[in-house]
Amino acid sequence: MISSLIAKIIPYFPKPFVYIFAKKYIAGPSLSDAVNVTKSLMDMNGMSTIDALGEFVTTKEVAEHELGLCYQVLDSIKDNNLETYLSIKPTSVGLGIDFDYGYNNIRGLVAKAKEYGLRARLDMENSPYTDMTLDAYRKLRSEGFDNVGVVLQAYMKRSEADVKSLIDLKPNVRLCKGIYNEAPEIAIKDKQGIRDNYKKLLDLMLDNEFYVGIATHDEELIQYSLDALKRRNLPKKQYEFQMLLGVREERRNSLLKLGHPLRVYVPFGDDWFGYATRRLKENPQMVTHITKSIFGIGK
Ligand SMILES: Cc1cc2nc3c(=O)[nH]c(=O)nc-3n(C[C@H](O)[C@H](O)[C@H](O)COP(=O)(O)OP(=O)(O)OC[C@H]3O[C@@H](n4cnc5c(N)ncnc54)[C@H](O)[C@@H]3O)c2cc1C
């Protein structure tokens, strides 16, 4: 009750206050911060994917600024020889302004990544952009860009049909639960229902030669995935685990120690507020931290 109330009001807290709790989820304000975090993950045999924070852009001016940042990320990955790729939020480079405009921006990035021998992934945003994002993905693949992946969300009722429609492409797909607040008509709302769908989609993907990014911190799903991989005796080039920076780091390290490929989502930039407030809302410890801070406990 208190938890959901705090989750609702957190976007209205002063930014410097939110930043105290948010900073563990973000590499820092600049690209060099994301590079340094990636290098320290590589020291542990881990990998990253770098996201220049920014989303739901409504003007071409801002979209072009975001696009410029994404090109800088690609240059930096190449120059530093990093085990990472670029995560692209489609609306941050203009997909929500106009499909052709956004597509051309995304295509330019994916083409540059290909020239450098790198990969990129289209993150999945909220439901108004699901079709456009999947259309952009399919169009990129039809143009021969096999260095690009996409994301499917287990809470979306449509995702099973989407998996089936992608089978022919043998795609590289990140499977996550989904983070946005979607209507019950199109999204599964109960926790166990989302988990069950995640398992079903994972099995479908693994049985159909998808490369799967298993993106979850949920122990039940991690265990299920480990069993599913073992049952199929799948090689390491067929999957990886993925986690968010700052979340369940001990579990992340234990998966790395077991020799599983594991990638951490590393966001950087000044535009951290939307990303960080979503993370804070899903953090079960958030209420304790905030209450302690408000009442000065532990100072
Ligand atoms: C690499 C990666 C990329 C993603 N990309 C997308 C995307 O493109 N589109 C999209 O809609 N969603 C994306 N997500 C978010 C995802 O959809 C979920 O919202 C998020 O991962 C939480 O779901 P969960 O499976 O970890 O389960 P949960 O049930 O939320 O979490 C399981 C457990 O993990 C711990 N935990 C989870 N979150 C936090 C936190 N913030 N702080 C502290 N502890 C926490 C808690 O112990 C919790 O009980 C991504 C997630 C990952 C890991």
What would a concise description of this structure say?
With 299 residues, the protein is of the alpha/beta class. Helices cover 48% and strands 14% of the residues. It starts with a helix and ends with a helix.
Explain the overall architecture.
By secondary structure, the chain is an alpha/beta fold. The chain has 2 domains: 1-26 and 272-299, no CATH class; 29-269, TIM Barrel. Helices cover 48% and strands 14% of the residues. The longest helix has 21 residues, at 60-80. The two termini are 26 Å apart. The model has no long low-confidence stretch (mean pLDDT 92). The site of flavin-adenine dinucleotide has 24 residues, from strand 4, strand 5 and strand 7.
CATH architecture of the largest domain: Alpha-Beta Barrel
Give the strand content.
5-15%
> Could you say which small molecules are bound to this protein?
flavin-adenine dinucleotide
> Could you estimate the helical fraction of the residues in percent?
40-55%
How many strands, what sense, and barrel or not for the largest sheet? 8 strands, parallel, barrel
Number of DSSP E strands: 8
Global Rg = 19 Å
Number of domains: 2
CATH class of the largest domain: Alpha Beta
Shape type: globular
Sequence stretches where pLDDT stays below 50 over 5 or more residues: none
CATH fold label of the largest domain: TIM Barrel
Alpha-beta content class: alpha/beta
Number of helices: 12
The largest beta-sheet arranges its strands as: 1-2-3-4-5-6-7-8
Please trace the helix and strand order, writing H or E for each element.
Answer: HHHEHEHEHEHEHEHEHEHH
Mean pLDDT metric: 92
Query: What is the subunit organization of this protein?
Result: single chain
C-alpha termini separation: 26 Å
